[in-house]
Structure formats: C-alpha cells, structure tokens
Amino acid sequence: DAGVTQSPTHLIKTRGQQVTLRCSPKSGHDTVSWYQQALGQGPQFIFQYYEEEERQRGNFPDRFSGHQFPNYSSELNVNALLLGDSALYLCASSRARGGEKLFFGSGTQLSVL
Amino acid sequence: GDSVTQMEGPVTLSEEAFLTINCTYTATGYPSLFWYVQYPGEGLQLLLKATKADDKGSNKGFEATYRKETTSFHLEKGSVQVSDSAVYFCALSDLYGQNFVFGPGTRLSVLP
Q: Which residues of chain B lie closer than 8 angstroms to A56, CB-CB?
C-alpha cells in the first residue's frame, strides 16, 4: 500500500516563474491538504481539497491555487514566484469521514533563485 | 485563532536520558492533540495522539497526556536513543479532524 507520494522531490525556479507540484494520496483517502514548511518552522496550512473543491484555505495569497482530480490526486500551483516561496511543500491526505489522522508525503523542496 | 506553542530547541541529550518537550495550546472547542516527528529528509509521521481530556497517547516509548486544565500536551520519554534524533511537532485539530495547526517544532539531538 503506497503512502502519500509527491513529485518532484526537488525543484529550482527563478523569481516570477510558475510551478506545479503533484500529490497522490494514500489509498482510501479522499481529502488532500497542502502545507508550506519554511526552514526551521512548522508546517503552515495552505488549503484543503475534498470532492474536487477547495474546502478550506489558510492565509496564503491567490498566487497559490490548487486542483483535485476525480482520482483524489491533487496539484498545487504557485504563480509569480517570490524568493520567500522557497520552502518544503508537504502534501497530507486523510479520510473525510472518521479520519482525523493526517498522512504526509516526503515533500517537494522548492528553491526560488 | 488556534495556536500551538512549543519549547524552543535544539534539545541535546545523552543516550538513555529523560526527555520532556513542552507543548501548550490555545483553541476554541475541544481539539484533538498530536505529536508528529520528522526525520531528516522525510515528511511528518504521526507519533501519538489524544482526542479528549485526560487521554494519554503513547507509542515507541513516548507518552503525552491531554491536560485540559493547563492546556498542555507535553511529550515525554524515559530513555532516549540516538535514533530518536529528529524534529518533533506538537499539533491540534478540531473535533472533526480538520484545521490542523502545528507548533514550530523542537529539534532533538541524542548523543551516544
């Protein structure tokens, strides 16, 4: 049983570019949440997707957008990249009903130069 | 809004020492409380959880008790090992397992 998988593992971009990160949830999970973890800090909630819709959103600008597909996989898109967007981006999956545990992927390390 | 505060690290201990990492929270309602661990180059893994007051979560020798009166969920282990070296995150979620809020993390280094 594969856990949460994320791709790519590492990414280098320059300011102003756009990036897409991908996540496949753990088998049986239908909810995907995205977190940004800056160096030395705890994960900060970006948004959560369920039934292909954004269900909740944290305090992140509209440059951060996402999508969930019918197979529950998800993408995180960031436009007009800033140096401050450099971070580890974590995807976590869970079950909407009776599933309070989050299962995390290993993350995508994004560096913006 | 909800928040989690942890003791600042890094914490450096010798093998077999006693570990305590303090965690306090501010939340409305009745949150569930968690400890997650992050090993180098990996994502977060659930270490233990407690869903109501006075519950004790335990796993791999680690324990934490949900103290509603002091709004705390301190992590303890009686005898740490070198393999316990990692970053530990205290977190809370709402009653439905949504709206996770994480603390800043505490780095633990255990020396042989």
A: 98-99
